[in-house]
Write a structure and sequence with these properties.
Blueprint lengths: L12 H13 L6 E4 L6 H10 L8 E5 L4 H9 E3 L6 E3 L1 H4 L4 E5 L6 H12 L9 E6 L3 H6 L5 H7 L3 E3 L7 H14 L6 E2 L1 H9 L5 H15 L4 E2 L8 H4 L16 H15 L4 H8 L3 H13 L3 H4 L3
Parallel strand pairs: 1-6, 1-7, 2-5, 5-6, 8-9
Antiparallel strand pairs: 3-4
Helix pairs in contact: 1-2, 8-10, 12-13, 13-14
Length: about 300
């Protein structure tokens, strides 16, 4: 089993409190909602909860609710293959006895939120026992208040809520995490020069630990000596940020270009916590183009874009 290194979460008191809550709640069966910006390790904390529970030897499965709506529904409930006619079990059945992570749960379509609430409430009737961990970049309570998230589902998943603070608000953790990532890269002979560390400390880490990890890994490849210099650091949107995290388990299916475009825009917005300027940079389009696309998807009634602030 790949165990989670909690040191990569940091030593800030707020983060340590979050990790302690995760450790304490892991011994229960209660659902856990993990809130925080993209790149903070919400799914990793979910895995930490799983590994410290009595379900550690059982399945740990994740579904990204920010994916195409039909793909999400098929992944959760199961579906019959068009070609073979074989029924593929859903994640709830496959993870029986273990833990299921619903990542970006706020992205679920409105109607499916209500269906999922009903299904989760009936799992016991089908002898299915799963631990629920959900993640979001949003304030679900506010979404409930504005009618953008189903209250019943929110009540079900939020009995234990853990909030992870952004890395840029934890300057003391930046140096610690950067050095830990450098050590875990296997390049034990590589050191960080002072100017390089200063550059890390001054950067606005929009994508948090995920971005920092990508920068460290890319920069090590450019380092020819034993010291990582300021010029070695590749800090910038296009080089530092990948659209899909390493733990994204979403499969790939055939779809039209229009569907793919809509899904990619949705993923960029979710990844940037709906920061349109950052999303436009990642997508390589103007903010005006992105705005026009969002308005286009709103007119077609797509729930995510209709509810986009």
């Amino acid at each position: 089993m790949n165990t989670v290194n909690v040191e990569l979460f940091g030593k800030d008191p707020k983060i340590q409190k979050a990790v302690n809550i995760a450790r304490n709640v892991s011994v229960t069966k209660a659902p856990v909602l993990i809130v925080g910006e993209a790149g903070l390790g919400k799914r990793t904390l979910g895995k930490y909860i799983h590994e410290n529970s009595n379900r550690a030897d059982a399945p740990f499965l994740t579904v990204d609710c920010a994916s195409d709506a039909q793909t999400v529904e098929n992944e959760i409930l199961g579906h019959r293959c068009d070609d073979s006619g074989r029924f593929n079990k859903g994640i709830l059945e496959r993870a029986n006895g273990g833990t299921v992570v619903f990542a970006n749960i706020d992205c679920l379509e409105d109607d499916f939120q209500k269906r999922l609430h009903k299904i989760l409430g009936e799992l016991q009737d089908y002898d299915i026992d799963v631990r629920l961990v959900t993640t979001t970049t949003k304030n679900l309570s506010k979404l409930v208040g504005s009618g953008r998230f189903y209250r019943g589902l929110y009540t079900m998943v939020s009995s234990n809520t853990i909030t992870l603070s952004p890395l840029r608000e934890r300057i003391g953790d930046l140096e610690h995490i950067a050095r830990r990532l450098l050590a875990e890269s296997g390049e034990n002979t590589v050191n960080l020069e002072e100017a390089a560390m200063d550059k890390i400390l001054k950067h606005y880490w929009t994508h948090n630990v995920h971005e920092l990890k990508t920068v460290i890994e890319n920069s090590i490849q450019n380092c020819e000596g034993e010291t990582l210099t300021e010029s070695d650091l590749e800090i910038g949107e296009k080089k530092a940020v990948s659209m899909i995290a390493d733990d994204d388990s979403e499969g790939i299916r055939l779809m039209s270009l229009k569907e793919a475009e809509k899904l990619l825009i949705k993923k960029a917005l979710v990844h940037t916590s709906e920061n349109r300027t950052q999303a436009a940079k990642i997508l390589g389009v103007s903010i005006r183009t992105l705005r026009n696309k969002i308005n286009e998807y709103r007119t077609t009634g797509s729930a995510y874009f209709v509810n986009l602030r």
